[in-house]
Amino acid sequence: MALKIRLARGGSKKRPYYRIVVTDARNPRDGRFIEKIGNYNPLLKKDDENRVVIDLERAKYWLDKGAQPTDRVARFLGAADLIKWEHGNNPQKGEPGQKAKERIEEKREKEEAKKAAAAEAAAEAEGASEEAPAEEASE
């Protein structure tokens, strides 16, 4: 059985409150859990001592049993010096998706076509203006 230490959401709409629970990874987020080991209230200030409350002994017990914390819970456990937490690195996070790249390419092609048409029109106008003075000079 794959164990997870994760957040289970409680609270009402727009007023989140989370329990830190140990559960089977296959269970739904707010579903059945094995044990509640703490809570997290994101509405409190970051320096408030009641924002994150974890039973460190139980957390250590479950980590020793092989439970894997989620990223957010790992951050909390790292702050409590139970595990070593490092900020994740996702270099593709800010990169646009497939459709956005296609739209950018289409926009670039349209701009190039407009520039080419403008350059062609300017060349024709220049050619026409060169012929006009030649006709006036011949008269």
TrEMBL record:
It comes from Parvularcula mediterranea. Belongs to the bacterial ribosomal protein bS16 family. This is Small ribosomal subunit protein bS16. InterPro entries: Ribosomal_bS16, Ribosomal_bS16_dom_sf. Gene3D superfamilies: 3.30.1320.10. Pfam families: Ribosomal_S16 (PF00886). Signal peptide: none annotated. NCBIfam families: S16. Residues 85-139 are annotated as: Disordered. GO terms for biological process: translation. GO terms for cellular component: cytoplasm; small ribosomal subunit. It comes from the Bacteria. Residues 96-117 have a biased composition (Basic and acidic residues). One of its GO terms (molecular function) is structural constituent of ribosome. Residues 127-139 have a biased composition (Acidic residues). Keywords: Ribonucleoprotein, Ribosomal protein.
